[in-house]
UniProtKB/TrEMBL annotation:
Family in the record: Belongs to the tubulin family.
GO biological process terms held by the UniProt record: cell projection organization; microtubule-based process
Protein name: Tubulin delta chain
Feature: compositional bias, Low complexity: 26-45, 383-394
Length: 499
């Protein structure tokens, strides 16, 4: 089923472009999923199409994003629509699906973005409706925006409210928001963040919170980027989100039909079984510099899964911060969604130095599956000859049989009232440059650290600092107090999970 992406503001448009680019990147299936014929030539390796829920294909085979781009300034939207190097782009946006509103930004004022004129919301929702009509049914929408600025946070919340009013009974709303650095971005960022989280509590079905602080540390500590820029941050976040929402399957039998892939609405229903608990966080393993990937080999149970479990146990978003002394979960969880991708059973395709090893493995697997053995390649040949028989081989059982019981009860501290707290899906298609990777989406009390930052906004509010700027656009003392109360109640609920 299709998922509509709505990118709002500078942050939302840059991040949306990064996520969709990651989803559309050609991924090579792990060698064990290929036929002897396809293995005989790297040129014939089948490349899976991008997830159909996020793209539609033109008659020429071009991937067009099911997306609407919204901003109050044209610069970022135009860059998305018209990339500097169109030939390098792996997808494109529909030129008719952009909505440039006004001639300036929202001045980092949540209230200004949220109180956008009715004509602004109407014109945007018309673009949304036009995209929805290109599919029979769209069960989920993915809205991307910032949590600190004016356009992204305010207008993003207004569009979430509007979509909920018009389509909430038929579709689920998944918001991915970028929370600001703790200091130094915008003087009123704590106000904007509090108002954003409170509004999404009311109108969204699930909120994935990505912390800029964490993404920056990941770039520095794990990717070894000394001074990460916006492109680096968006690239890392885009890969992390795509690792979760891209096509994955509950079992091997489902893999041959894209319609069986885990959909955005499936993820939301699993992750948010109770509408009082909507906040989610994300972890991904591994993260490493591209130059290190070729020299790294990982394992499943004792590698990827073990590290993700320990990160969850410690409540840390990055594997460089794992405390291996922790033997029990530090908090309580409502639900976890684990995605495993790749295989890693064989050397990477295109690695000419290991062609001989790869050829021997092809021969063994072809024989095991009652196909004709591959003839010995001639000396110095980089491409073995084709098999005499091209019977399709099943994918390896490796990724499909990984033991993930460490995430099941009683090994994880789940709440008593959720009868289905853990789900794992898989794909033997390698994710970008990684042989094996895992992504973990969590709904737990790890969000409390973010909610504690609301107190910074309260300190400013008690002094009535900058409140007049919000009052000018209809958000006054009553609205602030209601937002703080909303978040205090949310914080109390998550705190009580461990009691």
């Amino acid at each position: 089923m299709p998922t509509l992406t709505i990118q709002v503001g500078q942050c939302g448009n840059q991040l949306g472009s990064s996520i969709l680019s990651s989803l559309a990147s050609p991924s090579v299936p792990s060698p064990s999923s290929l036929t002897p014929t396809s293995l005989s030539s790297s040129a014939s390796i089948p490349v899976p199409p991008p997830p159909s829920q996020f793209f539609r294909q033109t008659q020429r085979g071009t991937n067009v994003a099911r997306a609407v781009l919204v901003d109050t300034e044209p610069k970022v939207v135009e860059r998305c629509l018209n990339p500097l190097d169109p030939s390098a782009a792996n997808f494109r946006y529909s030129q008719n699906n952009s909505c440039i509103i006004g001639a300036g930004g929202a001045a980092n004022n949540w209230a200004r973005g949220y109180s956008s004129p009715e004509s602004v919301l109407t014109s945007t929702m018309e673009k949304v409706q036009s995209e929805l009509e290109k599919s029979d049914y769209t069960p989920a929408v993915h809205i991307l925006h910032s949590c600190a600025g004016g356009t992204g946070s305010g207008l993003g919340c207004a569009l979430t409210r509007e979509y909920n009013d018009e389509h909430g009974s038929k579709a689920l709303i998944f918001n991915t928001i970028i929370t600001p650095f703790e200091t130094g971005e915008v003087i009123v960022q704590d106000y904007n963040a509090a108002l954003t989280l409170s509004s999404l509590n009311d109108f969204s079905d699930g909120v994935l919170c990505i912390e800029n602080e964490v993404a920056s540390r990941a770039c520095k500590k794990l990717l070894k980027i000394e001074h990460p820029g916006v492109k680096d941050l968006n690239g890392l976040i885009g890969d992390s989100v795509a690792s979760i929402i891209g096509d994955s399957y509950t079992d091997l039998q489902s893999f041959n039909n894209a319609a069986n892939a885990m959909q955005m609405d499936d993820i939301l229903r699993h992750m948010v079984p109770n509408s009082y608990y909507k906040m989610m966080s994300l972890r991904m393993v591994p993260m490493m510099p591209e130059r290190s990937v070729e020299f790294t080999r990982d394992t499943w149970e004792s590698g990827v899964v073990k590290r993700l479990k320990q990160m969850h146990r410690c409540g840390t978003p990055l594997e460089c911060d794992i405390n291996w002394r922790k033997e029990e979960d530090v908090g309580a969880s409502i639900s976890n969604f684990l995605v495993l991708r790749g295989d890693g059973g064989l050397p990477r395709m295109g690695d000419e130095k290991r062609t001989g090893i790869l050829h021997l493995e092809r021969r063994r697997r072809a024989t095991d599956n009652s196909t004709a053995a591959l003839p010995t390649p001639p000396p110095n040949s980089k491409t073995p000859p084709k098999a005499a028989s091209a019977k399709k081989l099943p994918p390896t059982s490796d990724v499909w049989s990984v033991d993930c019981s460490s995430f099941s009860s009683p090994n994880t501290n789940y709440v008593d009232w959720n009868n289905d707290p853990f789900k794992v899906t898989r794909s033997h298609v390698n994710f970008k440059r990684y042989e094996k990777m895992g992504g973990l989406l969590t709904n737990s009390d790890s969000c409390l650290k973010l909610l504690e930052r609301v107190d910074n906004a309260k300190v400013k509010f008690d002094a009535r600092a900058y409140v007049h700027q919000y009052e000018a656009y209809g958000v006054g003392v009553d609205e602030f107090e209601a937002a703080f109360l909303n978040l205090d109640e949310t914080r109390a609920r998550y705190r009580n999970l461990s009691k």
